[in-house]
Amino acid sequence: MLSRTANNLYWLARYLERAENTARLINVNSHLLLDLPSRVKLGWEPIVDILSFRDTFYENYKECDEKSVINFMVVDKKNTGSITSSLRSARENARTVKEIIPREAWEQINALYLYAIENQNEAFTRRSRYAYLNKIILANQTIAGLLAGTMTHDEAYAFMRMGRNLERADMSTRIIDVRSATLLSEIENELPAFSNIQWMGVLKSMTAYQMYRREVRVRINRKDVLTFLLTDPRFPRSLIHAIDQIERCVTELPHSKDTIAKTSTVKNYLLNAKPASLVQNKLHDFIDDIQVGLIEIDKQIEESYF
Amino acid sequence: MAIRWGSYKVPNLHDELVEKAGKPRDYSARLCEYLRALSDKEINELKAASDSAIHTMGITFRVYHQEEGSIDRAWPFDIVPRLIDSKEWTMIERGLKQRVKALNMFIDDLYNDQKIIKDGVFPASMLKKSKNFLEECRGFSPANGVWAHICGSDLVRDNKGKVYVLEDNLRVPSGVSYMLENRQVMKRVFPEMFEKYNILPVDDYPSHLYDMLAEMSPRKIEEPEIVVLTPGIYNSAYFEHAYLAQQMGAELVEGPDLVVEDDDCVYMRTINGLSRVDVIYRRVDDWFIDPEAFHPDSMLGVPGLIRAWKAGNVGLANAPGSGVADDKVVYAYVPKIIEYYLNEEAILANVPTYKCNNKQEREYVLENIAEMVVKPANESGGYGMLIGPHADAAEHDKFRKLIKADPRNYVAQPMLMLSTAPTMVGTRVEPRHLDLRPFVLSGKEIKVTMGGLTRVALEKGSMVVNSSQGGGSKDTWIVDMEDQ
User: Which residue from A3, A99, A100 is facing B271, i.e. has the nearest CB?
Assistant: First the structure.
């Protein structure tokens, strides 16, 4: 396979996953806001922070209110990470690999982009936002399912899976980092009841709530949630699972030794550090280290194949 | 009922589906009856279904927009198909095979012995003026003497119903993917009609193309590596490049993906390292294909490609230099070219073409310029053209002067009244002018698509069928009426 093609497949999957995760994040935040007492200032800024867009945001907007953040995160062309920008990039990448992915997948990606653009106003009213974002999430799941079910699981598929999982790992760590730090700590002590629903929010942004419930039956708490999201090997959106997937994909590719070395390092670090027992600022450092590890994996993939 | 054939009028024109108001042609009776029975609501539903199919299939073409740069437009498509009786098609098919065969012999001769010039059939002065004759190709002959492996010839019909060849595209003809996609759309929208008619299939084009390309491989191996070379995603025909690569299971490559090594072989950069390429279906123009041989600053090409090709290490379709046979002056000689190489009379007619370097013909053109279309020999895309009936006296004078100053650079043709076909306007049909571009594949055998791409001018009275200028397209049905 052409190096350029492999690169495009990898990024196609990353952009799709990014759009999906951003949609989940906004959906959960919208819901969370409804549940919290009005004196708790949760607001919309964390969304911008999770994706490290603070600078770009404040260059273009005065206030971090709901309307601005939705505009910035869903439709803004200046934000390369907004949902519609991600989908646009995904579509452009898909176009260049149309001869590789199944035709139905291309049609879905194309339709998803057009849907997101044509109905973007629905993101601004709370009433229609959920349905709009949910449709984007479901379309992404459909695409993932289509690819899994109709595409030969060859090298091309491996590159897409790698892209999807790397992006997922990246987003998961960001969500855990920001959600568990700035927002939650301030009310943890004084409002235990609300702490509970915030951890629920974290689980829900990663669609982990139901699966967590099946796995852990005691009351939702920080330690168990972190253990589950970071190190449950069987939950497909956990960090360890994502890295494990990348490793499996690389094994199918030629000259994979260097990349496997990188994924093993991150995996071992993750399993040995017992992140759930870390106090807040230590957890932040830990996640920083994981992020560096993910960047290293990404660099190695680029060097070996693109 | 929405469509009334009784009020569909085509005075002094040849219509592809209708003989005269209220009377469909034999082969289109069933279609016309079907359309007549549709209500306005049903017509709107069919149009919506076709729009949505085009939308989800992502059938687009790129246009350049001043503010927004290059943007995708949905492919404009008319749901009323254009029908041709298979009996007539058999004749057209034979004519195209004959024409392309002779043109390939002509190109091969020009780059080698130039017998046709020595025998005084084709003037040497004409060759000297050709921009598309490549000195680099002298003395070379590709496998089977075939240069233009893929040819798209534009056919038109005049108001008497006679078929003419308007031009031959021997460089990188495009449009075949739209022919294939139009058929897919029609199958989604009009499944019933495919039961009512015996419509000859077009879907085998990609496999024929693949076979023909594979035949050209210098390495005689089971699965030669075939690639489609595209200028990239911003090219107006990129959709087609990607589509054909996908249909053939070939890699779609851009210039920087390929490299010519010291062994004069072509390789592509893959995740496994460099991998040998056997045949390139190139959709990049001659001048940009190899910065080493031509434009040194081309980013689209592959340095050393011509070297590899002449060493016989890679097949190129179409061969560089094929364009020498598709300029406007060569066109005028095609009937003679056919006679010279095949000793046959041309089956398909040329539009009568007056060569202004001939004194008698020039006099005729100068006198009748108001009724004629004047074309410069080496321009394409309608640049520097005069359409006599649409121009004023000042412009006529300007062109008289231009012709007198450089007679060899001009040809002139009578203005043809192109045939029409019923085309949807709202929920009614009106006649619109159209042409047809069949595609001819030349390898050991010559194969012609069943029909081709019908392009239709969507504006009333217009004869401009280009998609960039308000043209659309129709599915083309070659219908076999024998075993109905």
Answer: A3
Q: Is A192 on the interface with B (CB under 8 A)?
A: no
Chain B residues contacting A, CB < 8 Å?
55-58, 233, 238, 242-243, 245-246, 249-254, 256-257, 268-272
CA A243 from centroid of its chain's CA atoms: 13
pLDDT in tens, A25-35: 898 888 877 77
Q: What is the ipTM, given to two decimal places?
A: 0.71
Q: A95: which chain B residues are within 8 Å (Cβ-Cβ)? A: 58, 233, 238, 242
Q: Which domain holds residue A159?
A: 3-305
* A 71-130 residues with CB < 8 A to B: 92, 95-96, 98-100, 103, 106-107, 110-111, 114
A205 Rama sector, left if φ>0, alpha if ψ -120 to 50, beta otherwise: alpha
Q: What's residue A194's pLDDT? A: 67
pLDDT at B65: 56
What's residue A208's pLDDT? 84
For residues B254 and B389, membership in a common domain is answered with no
C-beta atoms of B257 and A2 within 8 A: yes
Asked if the model's pLDDT at residue B67 lies above 60, the reply is: no
Contact B58 A96 (CB under 8 A): no
At A97, is the pLDDT very low, low, confident or very high (cuts 50, 70, 90)? Answer: confident
B-chain CB neighbours of A253 within 8 Å are 271
| Residue with the two structure tokens 């000297």 | B128
Same domain, B273 and B383: no
Dihedral sign from CA coordinates of B266, B268, B272, B274: positive
From B245, B268, B272, residue closest to A99, measured CB to CB: B245
Q: Are B99 and B348 in contact (CB under 8 A)?
A: yes
User: What residues in A contact B238, CB-CB < 8 Å?
Assistant: 95
pLDDT band at residue A273 under the 50/70/90 scheme? confident
User: Per-residue pLDDT tens for B446-460?
Assistant: 999 999 999 999 989
CA of B283 vs chain A CAs: smallest distance (Å): 15
Residues of chain A contacting residue B250, judged by C-beta atoms under 8 Å apart: 99
- State the residue range of the domain holding B356: 352-414
For the segment B291-300, the average pLDDT, to the nearest whole number, is 85
* Cross-chain Cβ contact B55/A92 below 8 Å: no
Identify whether residues B362 and B285 lie together within a single domain: no
Min Cα distance A9 → chain B (Å) is: 13
A1 touches chain B (CB under 8 A): yes
Instruction: pLDDT band for B64, please (50, 70, 90 cuts).
Output: low
Question: Does one domain contain both B326 and B368?
Answer: no
Q: Is the peptide bond before B318 cis (omega within 30 degrees of 0)?
A: yes
Q: How far is A99 from chain B (nearest CA, A)?
A: 4
The three state secondary structure string of chain A is CEHHHHHHHHHHHHHHHHHHHHHHHHHHHHHHHHHCCCCCCCCCHHHHHHCCCHHHHHHHCCCCCHHHHHHHHHHCCCCCCCHHHHHHHHHHHHHHCCCCCCHHHHHHHHHHHHHHHHCHHHHCCHHHHHHHHHHHHHHHHHHHHHHHHHCCCCHHHHHHHHHHHHHHHHHHHHHHHHHHHHHHHHHHCCCHHHHHHHHHHHHHHCCCHHHHHHHCCCCCCHHHHHHHHHHCCCCCCCHHHHHHHHHHHHHCCCCCHHHHHHHHHHHHHHHHCCHHHCCHHHHHHHHHHHHHHHHHHHHHHHHHHC
Are B105 and B244 in the same domain?
Answer: yes
Q: Cβ–Cβ of A107/B58 closer than 8 Å?
A: yes
Average pLDDT over residues B345-370: 93
Q: B413 pLDDT exceeds 90?
A: yes
Query: How far is the C-alpha of B359 from the C-alpha of B345, rounded, in Å?
Result: 26
Give the CATH number for residue B137.
3.40.50.11290
